[in-house]
Amino acid sequence: MLLKLLPSLALFSAVSALGQNQTIGFTASNNAFQLFGSSHGHQESSGQILVSPDDYWGVQKAAGDLATDFGRVTGTNLSLTAYGAKTAQAVYKWHAPTSDVVYAVGPEQQILGPLYTKTKDYKDTVIIVGTIGHSALIDQLVKAKKIDVSKIKGKWESFVSQVVKNPLPGVPKALVIAGSDARGSIFGIYDVSEQIGVSPFWFWADTPAQKHSEIYALNTVKVQGPPSVKYRGLFINDEQPGLTNWVNNNYKPGKYGPGMNHLFFSTIFELLLRLRANYLWPAMWNGMFNVDDYENQPLADAYAIVMGSSHTEPMMRATNEWGKFGEGAWRWDTNNASVRPFFEYGAKRAKPYINNSLFTMAMRGSGDTAIPLTRDKAIKAATDSVTAQREILDELLADEGKSAKDIPQMWCLYKEVQDYFEGGMSVPEDVTLLWTDDNWGNVRRVPIGDEKERSGGAGIYYHFDYVGDPRNYKWINTINLAKSVEQMKITHEYGADRIWIVNVGDLKGLEIPINHYFDLAYNIDQWGYDSVPQWLRLWAAREFGSKYAEAIGAVVDKYGILAGRRKYEMLSPGTYSVINYNEAETVLGEWAALASDAQKLHDSLPVNTQASFFETVLHPVTAGYTVYKIYVKAAQNDLYVKQRRTATNSKAQDVLTDFNTDAAITKKFHTILGGKWNGIMDQAHLGYDYWQQPMRNSLPPLAFVQTTETSVAGNLGVGIEGSNATVSGDDQYHDNGSGSVTSLPLEPYGPKTRYLEVFSRGTEACKWSIASPSYLKVEPSSGVTGPQQGSDVRAYISVPDWSKITETQTAILNFTSSCNWGNYQSPQVKVPVIPRSIPGTFNNGFVEAGGVVSIEAEHSTKSTTANGAKYITLPNHGRSQAAVSLSPITSPSLPAGTGPVLEYDFFTFTEIANPANITLFLSPSLNFLSVERPLKYAIAVDGEAPQTIQFVGTVTSDVSPPGWGAAVADAAWGVTSGRQTTTMHKIVPGKHTLKFWAVEPGVVLQKIVIDLGGVRKSYLGPPESFRAGVNKVGKYDGTTYLSQ
After folding, report:
1. Are residues 383 and 243 located together in one domain of the fold?
2. What is the DSSP letter of 443?
3. Domain containing 464 — which CATH number?
4. CA distance linking residue 572 with residue 680, whole number of Å
5. I want to staple 713 with a disulfide (CB 3.0 to 4.6 A). Which of 510, 660, 822, 953 is the partner?
6. Coil, strand or helix at 806
7. Number of domains in the chain
8. What is the CATH number of the domain that holds 144?
9. What contacts 139, CB < 8 A, 6 or more positions away?
10. Half-sphere exposure of 355 (CA within 13 A, CB side)
11. Distance of CA 87 to the CA centre of its chain
12. Helix %, strand %, coil % for the chain, to 5?
């Protein structure tokens, strides 16, 4: 059974807050309280939101946003009123540093909040918001027993909301939102904003508000407890060129770098809070958050955003600060006399904001590198730095009677740092251990054993963007959300729930995976392994309306599969085969269909939503499709020149056209909405030749033929599926001078057709025809082909009636033409025709064709349960259809015979002398349970003893396991990562059963390929084989990768 998402799809039309319980409606119902509208006595301009002036600045700011959000939805703002206020607006007070070297501060400065409406009349109050213990209003209601806060009081980021009768004199009813702390109140406020129709991405994705003329608070009590993860944040990183260029186009440059000032960060802070997140690592490449604008950190505190710094930037100081203000080498072992004061300054500067600070601890080498020492010496240096940092924090907090253990800190076990930990380095137990992925979305490690007992807990640093080996990926979204669910479930189930921080690059372009990530972090139990399609429908309903939700969700879901197969930056003309399995054409067809669907949706949407749809859906789809066209057509150009086709030149021109289209798509992004996003898509993404980004987009090499000449083998050529070979004439791919080529066989359980191509390689147009035996159908069997574009022909060969084929034979296709064949004989294509039959009793399994059996993991014949474990399907996880994994993820090791088994029945015809290869395509997961429990599976065919395979090598954590680079590039172990997932088995003709055991949880099976000598080179592997009981002879296509 698959886990299910809790919210019902029936709530689409009523629920706009993604995944949250409904408290807002838009039509009158029993006991619902009208917040806006005139039909029940409230004039459209009279509604008030009431706050207490003693509440947190951030709560008052959010309340002001809610008042504005009502205007976005209805056309009329609510007013913000402060109960008994003596000031005109909320004020946050702070002091700017006077030096970046020796800490001192200047005179008091102020950050002003939203303006209050001047009134002492509260009769039009419709909403009351505030924080327990910080709002006289809320405390008064609690004391009067108007609201019950017992379920949230003292809890982290919790709130209660309900309609209250007579909350204040003269106020008959009001929706009351009470928070346990500042962010609890803020989340309660923005929950209403989202439900009434304002997207968290109203600025960052230009999502227009959904319009309503009446808004009601339902008569229900909502109690929202603490989030699943305590600190939920994002890391703006790798921000050049895109985000940096955009910032420079829109904000005044800072003293030392781009203008990432408080005006810029206010948009980030608000976005985080609207997404129910609370934590930020600011940009670091050219940024110094606390120096670029002294108002940045106090503003974060005012908003109630928890500030941190990246894994390589300890003690609230940016790497670039050391370059500007530090002295000597960034080395604790040789220069701690300079480094320690640098740390002290960071701590002092952060002290006024200590309640919203999370300190990064220890040290790495300069600029995101390892400490340049041996392991033992590096561990000592890092340990000594932690000792000093704790002393600094103890001294900082002594005057408050506190110590370092009273404030949050984390130690990020990134890259080589994990090896320090596993080599014996320790930090105080109240410091959170921030585990990481491998930069490619595969969790390296989770807490195990007594690591789970640490008071500081554990977390995860995850990536949606990366710069480094084997190649950068930082252009646009390539995240498969189903994989995000699977990996984040691992982290949470093993107790890494204190901090989740995700690298989001430029942020723009990753709106969907960011939103999804934070929804998982907020309430992971709400989202099952199969929840992505439903989450996307809810997302689309919120962004574009319920009318379009189903279709938009399907487009985005399919995009995640296609883009997740391989990062755009890793593509090349050779990625997908242009001769085998129709792979490149099929994949390009998938993209074409997706692009068509996306464009039709865009054109059908209301005009005011089209810009947002372009930014979040249409742009990645059409941009991705264009990149695929470039590489597939470049591969076809290479094939054509080998075959000396006249169409070589037009195919090269197609690539150039698509190259220009790519540039035009970027330009469109930069010019929509009056150029709001100019510069944001400046990232080069075509022409990578090593890990680092190219300095400019470029094309792969293109070839041309001389079209004024005719081939020495005549004006026509004939090519076949599965080969570069052509006839007539000589080439390196077939027997020279034979005048014939042999096509792939026709079999009843194979693809219903094979194809050949007749193409021009001369200067004249030629009539041609194909003579074939009566039992074959060739369509078309004649035509005219010449140098004019589009006259090359693909002819399909099939057997219309397999009952007439009683024995294996080789059909001969003879070609005649009105033109001669140069100095060579007329060509022939030989077509093996092989009748096969399976017993009537074999009605549920896979059937060999062409020496291959290919099986999608979800299509098991039988799945058992054992020892409390079972297999679950992970829809759309992987490169084609769905994957399968063991549940629960916390299962113990289950050697073959002790755990559940997946069985796959298959039938073979080919007799081979040597054992057959069976290769499993497995998601590129890592040994997250440490080297003590490496990922393993077991496999057996029929009654043979199971073979147990450890497919992820046991290595120290400062290096990657063998084949890792290929596995993450391929999005699977088993493609080009080596033979870690290939086993040998004796298979004779007949029925067989393959058995699969996941020995460890976290093994994710995508596909099984049984090679009896017929597997041909491809990226996705052979399409799924004929499935008895499902497919029909003569109807099976054999070139499909996605679920139909």
Report:
1. yes
2. B
3. 3.20.20.520
4. 25
5. 822
6. coil
7. 5
8. 3.30.379.10
9. 132, 133
10. 11
11. 46
12. 30, 20, 50
For residues 464 and 505, give the distance between their C-alpha atoms in angstroms, rounded to a whole number.
Answer: 7
N residues, the chain: 1044
Whether this model's pTM surpasses 0.85: yes
Question: Tokens 């995944």 label which residue?
Answer: 19
Question: Do 851 and 913 fall within a single domain?
Answer: yes
> Tokens 């993404």 appear where?
685
Return the number of other C-beta atoms located less than 10 Å from residue 663's C-beta: 12
Residue with tokens 């039988």: 862
Q: Which two tokens stand for residue 25?
A: 């409606």
CA distances from 305 to 291, 358, 704 (A): 18, 10, 58
Print the domain residue range for 1021.
Answer: 845-1028
8 Å CB contact between 122 and 149: no
pLDDT, tens digit, for every residue of 260-315? 999 999 999 999 999 999 999 999 998 999 999 999 999 999 999 999 999 999 99
Q: Which residue matches tokens 């240096």?
A: 381
Amino acid sitting at position 1029: G
CATH of the domain at 570: 1.20.58.2150
The token duo for 974 is 């088993």
| Residue partners of 600: CB distance under 8 A and separation at least 6 | none
Q: Are residues 478 and 556 in the same domain?
A: no
Both 734 and 700 in a single domain? Answer: no
What Cα–Cα distance (Å) separates residue 527 from each residue in 531, 534, 975?
A: 6, 9, 31
Q: List phi, psi (to 5°) of 137.
A: -60, -55
d(CA 694, CA 475): 12
Last residue of a domain, one of 772, 807, 833: 833
Q: Could you tell me if 825 and 900 lie in one domain?
A: no
Taking the C-alpha atoms of residue 355 and residue 349, their distance in angstroms, rounded to an integer, is: 13
Going by C-alpha positions, the residue among 178, 234, 221, 233 that lies closest to residue 59 is 178
Of 629, 615, 614, the closest CA to residue 573 belongs to: 629
pLDDT tens-digit map of 453-512: 999 999 999 999 999 999 999 999 999 999 999 999 999 999 999 999 999 999 999 999
Q: How far is CA 647 from CA 387, 452, 713, in A?
A: 70, 63, 16
